[in-house]
Amino acid sequence: MRLVVIDPRRTATAEDADLHLRLRPGTDAVLFNGLLRHLAQGGFAEQDFVGRHTEGLDAALAAAGEGSDTATACDLDPALVGEFFDWFARTERVVTCYSQGVNQSSSGSDKVNAILNCHLLVGRIGRPGMGPLSLT
Length: 136
Fold this sequence. Notes:
The protein is built from eight helices and two strands. The protein has helices at residues 12-15, 28-41, 47-53, 57-64, 70-74, 78-90, 100-103, 108-121, and strands at residues 4-6, 19-21.
């Protein structure tokens, strides 16, 4: 098991993390939209699951943007972003937890939506032991 903490602050939880992404405040959705692009472009999409259980993939990818530099936008080391993207893409069981800092912000719906879209794209939802159905 690996623990990734995505938080601009150095918290007690971050101290125990295998990877701590101290992103620029307010860029959570940017990070997960970058992950969505990485998953789609890297061939990690679970096409059968997406086709049967979701709609709006093209719109979600368009909203995620094209070719933007996630690391720069989030003020993160590109190697750390690459490591996070790789871990998420190649780990069969991923659970994403978030707290009030994400869902109570003025763009909380966008942040949660970006997280869910990543789980939906790889079909890691609705199975025992999996994390969190429309890609938007």
